[in-house]
Amino acid sequence: MPTRLRVLVAVLCAAVLGALVPATTAHAEGRTVQGGRLDWGIKTSFQRYITGPVANGSYALTGGAATVGGSGFRFHSATGTYDGGTGAFRAAFSGGVHFTGHRTDSGAYQLDLTLANPTVSISGGSGTLYVDVTGKAKDTGAVTTSRQVPFASLSLGGIDMRGGGASVALNNLPATLTAQGAASFAGYYTAGTALDPVSLSADVQQARSTATESPATKSPQPKTTEKAAVKSTALVDGAVDWGVRRTFREYVTGDIARGSWALTSGALDGGALFRFPGGQGTFDDGDLTAAFRGAVRFTGDHGLDLRLTGVRVTVDDGKGTLYADVTSPDHTGRKVPLVTFTAKNLEARNGLVTVTEAPAKLTVRGAEAFGGMYPAGTAMDPVTLAVALTDTAELPALPDLGSEPTATPTASPSPSDASPEPVARATGPDDDGTSPVLPLSLAAGSLLVLAGAAALLVRRRRAGQDAADTPQNH
Questions:
Q1: Among 66, 89, 356, 381, fewest CB within 10 Å belongs to which?
Q2: Cβ distance 454 to 9 under 8 Å?
Q3: Helix (H) or strand (E) run with residue 359 in it
Q4: Nearest 5°: CA angle at 185, between 77 and 76?
Q5: Helix, strand or coil for residue 222?
Q6: Model-level pTM greater than 0.85?
Q7: Is a pLDDT exceeding 90 seen at residue 17?
Q8: Mean pLDDT over residues 432-452, rounded?
């Protein structure tokens, strides 16, 4: 090849590779997944079996898990990594579901199964759902606990996970029980059984430089301030977490009421609970008086319209009461005592006073506020509260559901994909502050085109040389 053409080819290749390299390196570093939710019903028919007349059982939510829709469970607080260049994704979620059924005369349950802390791992076009499993063997009754069992295979339907956006959203991924999952499921189903589809959304943080990050900057609180913050202390901040009642929420969103709820005035959604923040009041030697911001309104068919606002909590001599202003078609009242709970021996620790998941019972006036749906004494959702007495005290984190999933482009499922809805690809605008880079496939294609053009120039040059060197027949 003549020198000039060799130089031309080298320049063209260098130019294209210059565009190609940023495309492969811009997202090469794994980015942090922080916040998000995973919705999965495990297997709807199994739920019906558990609560039906044969097993005559029930389920309980653990670790902040919630119900969503007609038969789904919501797991929260995603943590993990995402590589937009390769599409590799891993996110672990919190929360669990405890199923029990077939109660014996001794009070024990023959069926006792807990599935918790699901993790989704996607790499190379395939996905796996892992869960922690605690179960009782159907024949022997032996209880075993296994961590992160590869429970189900996930079908991506030909989806391209590459992208590097600010979020990952995947809808209705078909899930199939694995051999390990079948063994952990106490043999109730065989490997290959279709489970409920999996949907998730997860926030992806922008890559951050560690150079500017420093170790913990908050100095430890001197022990002497603890004593100063015990008596007649004004609250710096506070929050109360309460989900009202799980079955009430399920009724609101179920087939009967076909309704929903809305949070306003600063109230926050924690999946299985609502957080009412901005606590103001006083803490005085174990007794507490606090008012919080936020409102929740439940609406639905059959005249359902219940609004709770002005949430207050008092603790007096170890007895706690949660109040709210109630507005409904049948009952309106201010500072209605809804539930009572026990909160003995409240003390400040490092400037924080807490009550964690205290069992709560409906009061007589609370029963009236719910229109007689539940009698007085009914167990309602537990009450969790925290109030800060110092500027340095931090309130416990709310379960992190991440950003609300937004509409995203969808990928065409493969012909074998049995998903009832298309699967959304990893999406979101690039948030690393750089200009869009040339996609890998386009850069590679451009390289081939330019290389072909250079080769064509070489062939033509050689053809001209060959023609000049060939003897002419005159």
A1: 356
A2: yes
A3: strand 352-362
A4: 5
A5: coil
A6: no
A7: no
A8: 34
Amino acid, single-letter form, for residue 400: D
**181, 436 Cβ separation under 8 angstroms:** no
Give the separation between CA 424 and CA 170, rounded to whole angstroms: 5
Residue 9 CB-half CA count within 13 A: 16
The residues with which 132 forms a beta bridge, in sequence order, are: 116
Q: Which residues of 432-450 are buried (b: 16+ CB within 10 A; e: fewer)?
A: eeeeebbeeeebeebbeeb
What is the C-alpha separation between 367 and 303, in angstroms, rounded? 17
Distance CA 455, CA 8 (A): 10
Interatomic CA distance for residues 362 and 444, integer angstroms? 66
Question: Residue 427 carries which DSSP code?
Answer: B
Out of 4-13, 165-174, 350-359, least confident range: 4-13
Count the neighbouring beta carbons within 10 Å of the beta carbon of residue 122: 22
Alpha-carbon span 200 to 76, nearest angstrom? 10
**Tokens, residue 85:** 């260049």
User: Using alpha carbons only, what angle is made at residue 328 by residues 326 and 329, rounded to the nearest 5 degrees?
Assistant: 150
CA dihedral sign of residues 194, 47, 147, 270: positive
Secondary structure of residue 310 in the 3-state scheme: strand
Are 414 and 161 spatial neighbours (Cβ–Cβ below 8 Å)? no
Q: Could you tell me which residues come within 8 angstroms of residue 211 by beta carbon, excluding any fewer than 6 positions away?
A: none
Instruction: Please give the single-letter amino acid code of residue 390.
Output: T
Q: What are the b/e assignments for 260-297, b being 16+ CB within 10 Å? A: ebeeeeebbbbbbbbbbbbbebebeebebebbbbbbbb
Q: How far apart are CA 335 and CA 323, in angstroms?
A: 5
Q: Which amino acid is at 450?
A: L
Burial 353-365 (b: 16+ CB within 10 A, else e): bbbeebebebbeb
CA gap 263, 410 in Å, rounded: 30
Which amino acid, residue 171? N
Structure token pair of residue 459:
């062939």
| pLDDT attached to residue 412 | 34
CA-based radius of gyration for the chain: 30
Half-sphere exposure at residue 196, Cβ-oriented, CA atoms within 13 angstroms: 17
**Under a CB-based contact definition with an 8 Å cutoff, are residues 271 and 76 in contact?**
yes
Rounded (to 5) percent helix, strand, coil in the chain: 20, 40, 40
User: How many Å apart are CA 402 and CA 423, to the nearest integer?
Assistant: 19
In three-state secondary structure terms, 161 is coil
Question: Per-residue DSSP letters for 188-214?
Answer: SS-TT-EEEEEEEEEEEPPP--SSS--
